[in-house]
Amino acid sequence: MLLFRNMRLLSWMTSMFAIHVLSATESRPNFILIMVDDLGIGDVGCYGNNTIRTPNIDRLAKEGVKLTQHLAASPLCTPSRAAFLTGRYPVRSGMASDSRIGVFIFSASSGGLPKEELTFANVLKKEGYSTALIGKWHLGLNCQHNSDYCHHPLNYGFDYFYGMPMTNLRDCLPGHGSVFIAGAASYIKILFQITSITIVTALLLHYNGIIKIRWKMLRYCLLFFMFLFGIVVFFFWNFRYLNCFLMKNHQIIQQPVSHENLTQRMTTEAVDFILRNKENPFLLFMSYVQVHTALHTAQHFRGKSKHGLYGDATEEVDWSVGTILNALDKNLLQNNTLVYFTSDNGGHLEEISSSGEVHGGWNGIYKGGKATCWEGGIRVPGLLRWSGVFEAGTVINETTSNMDIFPTIVALSGSSLPQDRIIDGYDLTPLIQGKSVKSEHEFLFHYCNAYLNAVRWNPRNSKSLWKAFFFTPNFQPQGSSGCFDSHVCFCYGESVTHHDPPLLFDLSRDPEEKSPLTPQTEIHYYTILQTILQATKKHTESLPVVDKQLSWNNIIWKPWLQACCSSWFYLCYCDNEKELGMDWTSKK
Question: Among 11, 146, 328, 501, whose CB has the most other CB atoms within 10 angstroms?
Answer without folding.
Answer: 328
